[in-house]
Design goal:
With 125 residues, the protein is of the alpha/beta class. The chain has one domain. Helix content is 41%, strand content 15%. It has six helices and six strands, in the order βαβααβαβαββα. It has a six-stranded parallel beta sheet with strand order 5-4-3-2-1-6, with helices on one face. Strand 1, helix 1 and strand 2 form a beta-alpha-beta unit. The radius of gyration is 14 Å and the shape is globular.
């Protein structure tokens, strides 16, 4: 399934900025965010923004965090290849969630000047 351009978001203001463009967008957490912010934070953030598009929590190489996110009903997980990859992939498929082995190229909305580049980034489709 092809996804729209990805943006890395760090909070509600970033999601609002991405949604304000009225273009399809895929949201990514920061790399490894599941390790320090947790799956609950990501689920709450998506719910607070009423975001229903593709969204992925980056779990680095921590399958336990990926399981946690999937059990919370997250729609997408990024998990680096690890010994538990096949089991997590099977569980993700059963939950109807997407599992990626690496994050796609993305515009990090916390980077200097990212807000100015957002429209062009999202129009690359």
């Amino acid at each position: 399934m092809p996804y729209p351009p990805a943006t890395i978001v760090h909070g509600l203001p970033h999601i609002a900025l991405a949604q304000a463009q009225n273009r399809p967008v895929m949201l990514l957490s920061a790399p490894g965010a599941a390790l320090y912010a947790g799956a609950g934070w990501w689920a709450a953030l998506l719910a607070a923004a009423n975001f229903t598009g593709p969204a992925f929590l980056d779990c680095a190489n921590a399958p336990g965090r990926a399981w946690e996110g999937l059990k919370l009903g997250l729609p997408g997980i990024i998990l680096a290849p690890c010994p538990a990859w096949d089991q997590v992939a099977e569980y993700a498929a059963a939950q109807g969630a997407a599992l990626l082995p690496a994050a796609p190229p993305a515009l990090d909305l916390a980077a200097p000047g990212a807000a100015r580049r957002l429209e062009a980034w999202l129009n690359q489709m």
